[in-house]
Structures are given as C-alpha cells and as structure tokens.
C-alpha cells in the first residue's frame, strides 16, 4: 500500500543553512546540554526582514511606523533588535509592555492593542506615552478618566470593525465610531486622536487595502471636524509567509488524503504554507492596490499626508527561528513507524490550533540516504493520544534512530511558545539566541533572557 505523501521541503535562509550544515555539531551539543525541545532564535534574520518591509514603504514614498507584534514570539532578543533598529513594538499586556520598555524601546514607539485592556495596562501606557488602540466606547471612557487622574493626555487610535467582517468581536461599529469621534472632540484635553485602526482576519491584500482606504476617509472626516492630529492608519499585520515552494504546496493540496496521516487523521484547514506573494511582496500589493479613479492606496496616503502603521509578527519572524527535538524511540507499525520525541506539541503550536504544522522536519547531521525512504509520523512524549508533533507520515531519507535530533524549521512565528506550559511538571523549553559570522563558519550563542535575569 503506497501512502507516501508529497514532500513539503521547508525554505532555508542562508544563515539557517549555514547553522545546520557548518555548525551541526554545536547545535547538537546545545540540545544535549540545554534539553529537548530547544528553540533557536536568529535576531539577524529578524533585522533583515524588518529592513525589507521598511524598504517597500520607502520605495513608494509612504510615511510609516513599523511595530513588531510581540505576541508572535516571547523571545527577548527580538525586542532588543527593535530597540537597536529604532523600531516600535505592539503589545497587549502589562508584562509585554514592561519587557519592551526594559529592552530599550521608548513608550512613544509602543502600540497597545487588545480588547478591554486593564486599568493597570492603560495607566502604564499613559505614563509612558504609548499609542493605545481603543476597541470600545467603554474603554475610551475609562482612558479619559485615567488620563484625568494621571494628568496625562492619552494618545489613541479608534479601532473600527471592517464592513467585510460584520461578525468580528473586535472594533467599533459605524454608530460607535461616530459616538467615539464625538467624545474625542469633547475631551480634547484628555485624549489626542491620532488615527484609526482595524482588525482583519485572513490574508487578502485587496481587503486590507480597501479597509485602509476607508480609514483614510475617516481621518479626513475627523480633520474636517477639527482634529488635525488624526493622520495615522493602522494596517494591522496579516502579511503571509511562504514556508514551502508554491508548486509543492499546490501538489500537496491536490493529493492530500487521510491515509497520509497517522490514524487517518483529517484537518479542517491549513495555514497557506505555499502562498505566492509573501511578506514584503504582499505589503507592496496592499500599498499599490488600485482604488477609485485609478489611484493606489500609497498615492492616496501621500496625497493626504497619512502615515501608515504596520504590525507584522510572523512576517518579521520568517526564518528567524527553529526548534529541535531529541528522538526518544521508534515504534514500528504496518507501512510506517511512529517516532517519539522528547517534548510536547505545546512547543509546536499549530496542533493546538486544531491544525498541522506541515513543513517537513529534518534530521540533524549527515547520514547516507537509504535505498527506501523511512516513513514515519512524529509523536510527543506525553500521555495524550492527541499529542502529535506531526500526524503526517514524513519520508525521511534514512531510518531515524534513538538519539537523533529532529529540526522543525521556521517556527519563530507563533509556533514555538504560544501554547507552552509545564505539562507533566516539565520545565519550559529554553531559547538560545544565535548570531552567525558573515565571513565563514562560527557563531556566538547565549540564552535568551530578560534584562532582569542578568542582575
């Protein structure tokens, strides 16, 4: 019975390739010494991604602010990279805000989002001069009250619910938008309206461009009512990442079937791992999307002096991290094997979103390929039937052995820590920040720790 699925070969950034090919022994030693699973994060790649996104805005002559969506990865080195770049961060909790400030990012470069934020978070944001995205009328009223107590004017965006997503729980309806705008006009001593934001599910560049265009119109409306400071539109995030080649992805979708998975598992849907226009290309598509009268979103923003805010998470973290698991054992089954790895799928979060992280894991190190591929799924080491790292049967080039290390590539964006917990009293996996030499083999590594841990 042939159940061999098509391969989904994960892209490798040149620095990732150098890490795995030229420094494999060092990587293996880190897993031995620091435990499995082990997350490796690469701030150099994060910086390159940020510069590529900024270059798109600059090429189109569009004023912009880049805010890293911190929820996408808890690693402290990425906030440090933002500080070094003079770039902002988007946060949604007091802990995220405190750690971002500790990394050296100034309050004026921090956006605060999320629904119905706590008074503690709002107070800290006001004291630090952060830009707060308001999600409800009640939250706006609380911000004004806190601003009066703290004697600090609040910098705010009004988050609007797009017409295309009428059932979203986020954002203000049209009636609420007008009421909030009226309130901002009444409370100009306590609140400074700087613009509008929206929350958009999905990856449609056309829908994002149309929503942004509508918010430019709202900015012009607010300016006409006397709010001259209203000149920013927050595009949110939602720039897709390309994990595998589009042609491979298309073939995979065409041939995908339950027989290719352990226990004939099926899924309702997957992340678009082979999207054709990822990252900076998707951003360009948003900004150059044609609007009324043949103009583009970028042209409309330039014409009216509007600044865009972009809040990428996954797109900034593309190729900026990988996760390694040690193999504990292998169990033979008919036509395939089950690999048991040390750790849990809490460290590969897609499973906990009721989906599958599809790029093929790699075997670390070099071993000759066998005549026939070694077909296996990958289980985690907890007591749950559902705790699988990879349900799909992967065609490894040679038999997997106890003590091998499996490498899951490109896990920095939402995979490596979104759902981690000390299940079975296990310690949370460590993160190692690595900087590779640009002139040849060699690297520098250190544990990724918060500033308070260095005292």
TrEMBL record:
Residues 54-245 form the Orn/DAP/Arg decarboxylase 2 N-terminal domain. InterPro entries: Ala_racemase/Decarboxylase_C (IPR009006), De-COase2_N (IPR022644), Orn/DAP/Arg_de-COase (IPR000183), PLP-binding_barrel (IPR029066). Keywords: Pyridoxal phosphate. GO terms for molecular function: diaminopimelate decarboxylase activity. Pfam families: Orn_Arg_deC_N. GO terms for biological process: lysine biosynthetic process via diaminopimelate. Its cofactor is pyridoxal 5'-phosphate. This is Amino acid decarboxylase.
